[in-house]
Amino acid sequence: MDYKEAISRMTDEDVVTILCDLGSDYPREARNSLIFQTVCHGGEKHKLYYYRDTKAFQCYSNCGHFSNIFNVVMQAKDCSFGEAYKYVCEKLGYYFSSTLRYGFQEESIDNSFINRFEVEKVKAESIVIRDPVVLKRFRDLYHHTWVEDNINTRVMRLFGIKYDILDNAIIIPHYNMNGELIGIRARYLNEDMVAAGRKYMPITIDNILYNYPTSLNLYGLNINKENIIKYKRVVIGEAEKFVMQHRSYYEDSVAVALNGSTLSEYQVHMLLDLGVETVVLALDKEFDNPEDEKKYKEKINRSFISKLLPYFTVEIIWDQKGLLDLKDSPTDKGKAVYEQLYSDRIILS
């Protein structure tokens, strides 16, 4: 059986078996929960809650939210997802399968990236917090091309978009999830800059380059964080415009952007910390023929699904009806097209 079947099959007695084996005393009972000792971090207080309705855990001491029992085991035993999965199956007498079906294809899940998380965490903690006063040199003007691209001016204002008259560029501030300025990018509008491959670039002010490692952040999380926590869902796109288009369509948007086409270990942990249960991939269209589509599916499996599926329900917005052009984001063609694409999304199981 796969991990989702294991979770759905798991009884209260099974959960008690695992948690007691990890070192907890027999749990205390509340109306809809079992309360264990905090074996997740080696504690003794009864502050690790298991909620029967969602089958999720919450450590009210140090660790926070765990979306399922495998995450608790990983934390308690300092092991990979594969090792936790095998441990639970063997302890409960479940059939253990080394492969999980993605929907796109079947192959072994690679969880080795989780072991690199601590390195990324150190890098994230060293990101320089910038003084937002630097943004005052730019104008609160909103370029017509972005309005025509389905981003309304209220949303541009919300995201702090500005305009650089001197360089004819749209200024895009980047904030961490706490709302602190960590970088500034520009969307240059002059044809010579676009032709030179400098369409989107970090800006330099007074010899200071306002860049940062984008793999250690999710653009738009500072704006949409409360919605993501509320709905336990996130829609992941590639670029800043995707997030602003999505927010223009939906006031309760749960969109964020990678600022690239790969997903990092740190970004996965950010989603776990927020209690996300469902991840919707809304990546740019990178194929216009069957051969390229097959190659792109392989990339999605390798770069995204293998990292996400152990922890989340994964849904993919995939243009199966030719509604998008090559390189389009799912939000580029307007709200009606996006909603059709979303309705046709692939849900992996």
What does this protein look like?
By secondary structure, the protein is of the alpha+beta class. It has 3 domains: 3-98, DNA Primase, Chain A (Alpha-Beta Complex), CATH 3.90.580; 132-212; 216-347, Dna Topoisomerase Vi A Subunit, Chain: A, domain 2 (3-Layer(aba) Sandwich), CATH 3.40.1360.10. Helix content is 35%, strand content 18%. It has helices at residues 3-9, 12-21, 69-77, 81-92, 117-125, 144-148, 153-158, 191-195, 221-231, 240-249, 265-273, 290-308, 335-343, and strands at 28-29, 33-36, 48-51, 56-59, 64-66, 100-101, 106-107, 162-164, 169-175, 181-188, 200-202, 204-205, 208-209, 233-237, 255-257, 278-281, 313-316, 346-347. The strands form 5 sheets. A 5-stranded antiparallel beta sheet has the order 1-2-3-4-5. A 5-stranded mixed beta sheet has the order 15-14-16-17-18. A 4-stranded antiparallel beta sheet has the order 8-9-10-11. The protein is globular. The termini are close together.
